[in-house]
């Protein structure tokens, strides 16, 4: 095991994970008002109406595929009847469709940011860096799928990348598992690690936000003021006095 392998497949992932966790805690404590998507929908909605659903639906499919392929041991899938051939077909074709949908949505969103003036002016330097690493991660992942899975002989990443990640999670790293992994998969993993390190300092923090209190808040009831209030009703609280304007008789003919 070389020093470069140790740095790439042990030090870098753990360092990015620490920045990811500590960065989110810091951002939540000291920048709550900046914890937002910084929506630009008011500036332009036609392209956003197409690009945003495509990107978000595609990325959810991509995340689901990564969870199944990387975190769930294949023996568990065998136990429920999903053999290697069935998994390979689903991962290859559904993964390719999800990647194309995600990249198409991202391309529309980037085109919108570059061509719509107000949206471009609202784009920060960190947004641009985030788009570069997000696009690179998606690009290398899609390229690896096409080169090695669709048009190639196939590569079983569940024998190398998947156990490497699971061993990293339980703090028993085995960097040698990544040394013989094809280059595009390696680049996909490296850019993903760097994206996670940038995550807390970008608009991507909105992924961890959900309006949960809205599910439990009481209903808002609007009542009109009833002039004929019955006996025993609560007294009307003091509020704003109605604005009354005397009739303007100027210019009218007097009889």
TrEMBL record:
Residues 7-225 form the NarG-like domain. It is found in: Cell membrane. One of its GO terms (biological process) is nitrate assimilation. One of its GO terms (cellular component) is nitrate reductase complex. Heme b 1 binds at residues 56, 188, 206. One of its GO terms (molecular function) is electron transfer activity. Its main location: membrane. Its cofactor is heme b; Mo-bis(molybdopterin guanine dinucleotide). It is a multi-pass membrane protein. The chain crosses the membrane at residues 6-26, 47-72, 92-111, 131-151, 183-201. It comes from the Bacteria. SUPFAM superfamilies: Respiratory nitrate reductase 1 gamma chain (SSF103501). Residues 231-255 are annotated as: Disordered. It holds the Pfam family Nitrate_red_gam. Heme b 2 binds at residue 66. Keywords: Cell membrane, Electron transport, Heme, Iron, Membrane, Metal-binding, Nitrate assimilation, Oxidoreductase, Transmembrane, Transmembrane helix, Transport. Does not seem to have nitrate reductase activity. In the N-terminal section; belongs to the nitrate reductase alpha subunit family. In the C-terminal section; belongs to the nitrate reductase gamma subunit family. PANTHER family: NITRATE REDUCTASE PRIVATE CHAPERONE, REDOX ENZYME MATURATION PROTEIN REMP FAMILY, RESPIRATORY NITRATE REDUCTASE 1 GAMMA CHAIN. This is Nitrate reductase-like protein NarX.
């Amino acid at each position: 095991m070389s020093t470069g392998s140790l740095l790439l497949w042990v030090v870098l992932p753990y360092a990015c994970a620490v920045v990811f966790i500590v960065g989110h805690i810091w951002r939540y404590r000291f920048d709550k008002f900046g914890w937002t998507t910084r929506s630009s929908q008011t500036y332009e909605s036609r392209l956003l109406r197409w690009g945003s659903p495509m990107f978000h639906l595609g990325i959810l499919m991509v995340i689901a595929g990564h969870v199944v392929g990387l975190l769930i041991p294949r023996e568990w899938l065998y136990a429920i009847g999903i053999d290697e051939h069935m998994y390979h077909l689903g991962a290859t074709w559904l993964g390719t469709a999800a990647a194309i949908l995600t990249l198409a949505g991202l391309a529309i969103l980037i085109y919108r940011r570059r061509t719509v003036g107000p949206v471009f002016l609202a784009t920060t330097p960190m947004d641009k860096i985030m788009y570069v690493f997000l696009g690179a991660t998606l690009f290398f992942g899609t390229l690896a799928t096409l080169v090695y899975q669709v048009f190639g002989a196939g590569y079983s990443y569940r024998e190398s990348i998947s156990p490497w990640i699971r061993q990293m999670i339980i703090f028993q790293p085995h960097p040698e598992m990544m040394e013989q992994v094809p280059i595009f998969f390696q680049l996909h993993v490296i850019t993903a690690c760097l994206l996670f390190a940038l995550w807390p300092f970008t608009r991507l923090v909105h992924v961890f936000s959900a309006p949960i209190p809205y599910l439990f808040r009481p209903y808002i009831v609007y009542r009109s003021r009833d002039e004929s209030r019955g006996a025993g009703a609560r007294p009307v609280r003091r509020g704003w006095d109605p604005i009354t304007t005397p009739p303007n008789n100027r210019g009218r003919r007097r009889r």
